[in-house]
């Protein structure tokens, strides 16, 4: 168990999650936020979240809830947050100007061996880090929300990132109960959002063209594709749906290509189609003013799924 220090900058939704994950691996986490009230709220929220994780048997790592909580402290001073940290996770709002400003400040406060990791969902690592003295130490670690129940995390180096930064980032993330995936080239949206937006694009077109209702479109995912995707990706799905991948190609490649050719160009989601989707989701998920209730409904299911996956993985391990 390591007692090394990690600095977390920004204590919103993602900063809090990272703090808890790193603390579960035994790291000493120091959180900084430009809004002191946010850091105070973060500490209280983390206390409640850890209690809920413990209640559901989903605490990560081997430390007790209290030990994990005690590993997290807050500061109102950026220098105190990053000083002597070997790893810094930035979780400030998704704006290039803010991220560049924060990293320019950090750049002046750190040594040459530190790892500078950003949570950005869509900004490219080269765009954020190009002006930094320590740009060779910069990397993106983009989590899936909520990171406690969805452990996949995209790791995106810039062309100038040192290889040891990639390796060490993988180690820290794995120790923290996450499942890192290397994105080998910088592309907008990385991989998760490119896949997600391809799905949204086609679902939007099918609704706009009157092929399916928004509710039924969601049913196809929640009662169909999504069930398999909770356990495997499209390639393993294909492999199992035929006698392996080559047989899948032989059987389905022409059909897939023909159907893909019928997809139209990208469209902006807006106007009457978007209004119709909103109205359908109000029927399906309840009115926006009650959205918190539906989020709890979602989280309950995500917790149950996380438990099921953990138990099945343990069974697999035991059977090996
Ligand atoms: N929310 C998600 O689903 C999600 C998923 C993956 C990645 N991300 C990424 O994580 C990052 C953070 O997102 P979030 O949802 O936690 O945002 P958030 O708005 O909940 O939190 C941002 C925090 O940063 C603080 N902040 C603003 N300027 C700052 C500064 N100069 N220095 C220090 N702190 C500052 C704010 O006070 C706030 O507490 C974004 O880049 C976002 O794209 C978000």
UniProtKB/TrEMBL annotation:
SUPFAM superfamilies cross-referenced by the UniProt entry: 6-phosphogluconate dehydrogenase C-terminal domain-like, NAD(P)-binding Rossmann-fold domains
InterPro entries attached to this UniProt entry: 3-OHacyl-CoA_DH_CS, 3-OHacyl-CoA_DH_NAD-bd, 3HC_DH_C, 6-PGluconate_DH-like_C_sf, 6PGD_dom2, NAD(P)-bd_dom_sf
Q: Name one GO biological process term.
A: fatty acid metabolic process
Q: Which UniProt keywords apply?
A: Oxidoreductase
Residues in 3-hydroxyacyl-CoA dehydrogenase C-terminal domain copies: 189-237
UniProt keyword annotation of Protein transport present: no
In its UniProt entry, what is this protein called? 3-hydroxyacyl-CoA dehydrogenase
């Amino acid at each position: 168990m390591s007692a090394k220090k990690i600095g977390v900058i920004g204590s919103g939704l993602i900063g809090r999650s990272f703090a808890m994950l790193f603390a579960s691996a035994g790291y000493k986490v120091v959180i900084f936020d430009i809004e002191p009230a946010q850091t105070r709220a973060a500490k209280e929220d983390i206390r409640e979240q850890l209690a809920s994780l413990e209640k559901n048997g989903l605490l990560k790592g081997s430390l007790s809830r209290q030990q994990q909580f005690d590993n997290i402290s807050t500061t109102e001073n950026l220098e105190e947050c990053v000083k002597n940290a070997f790893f810094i996770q930035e979780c400030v709002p998704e704006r290039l100007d803010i991220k560049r400003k924060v990293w320019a400040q950090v750049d002046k406060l750190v040594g040459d061996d530190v790892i500078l990791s950003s949570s950005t969902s869509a900004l490219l690592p080269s765009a954020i880090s190009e002006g930094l003295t320590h740009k060779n130490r910069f990397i993106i670690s983009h989590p899936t929300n909520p990171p406690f129940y969805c452990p996949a995390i995209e790791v995106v180096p810039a062309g100038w990132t040192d290889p040891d930064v990639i390796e060490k980032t993988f180690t820290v993330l794995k120790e923290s109960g996450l499942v890192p995936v290397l994105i080998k080239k910088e592309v907008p949206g990385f991989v998760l959002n490119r896949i997600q937006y391809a799905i949204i694009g086609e679902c939007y077109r099918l609704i706009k063209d009157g092929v399916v209702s928004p509710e039924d479109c969601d049913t196809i995912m929640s009662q169909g594709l999504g069930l398999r995707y909770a356990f495997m990706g499209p390639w393993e799905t294909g492999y199992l749906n035929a006698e392996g991948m080559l047989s899948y190609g032989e059987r389905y490649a022409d059909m897939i290509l023909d159907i893909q050719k019928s997809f139209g160009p990208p469209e902006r989601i807006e106007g009457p189609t978007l209004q119709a989707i909103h109205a359908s989701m109000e029927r399906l998920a309840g009115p926006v003013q009650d959205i918190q209730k539906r989020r709890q409904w979602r989280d309950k299911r995500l917790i149950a799924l996380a438990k099921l996956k953990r138990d099945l993985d343990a069974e697999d391990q035991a059977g090996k």
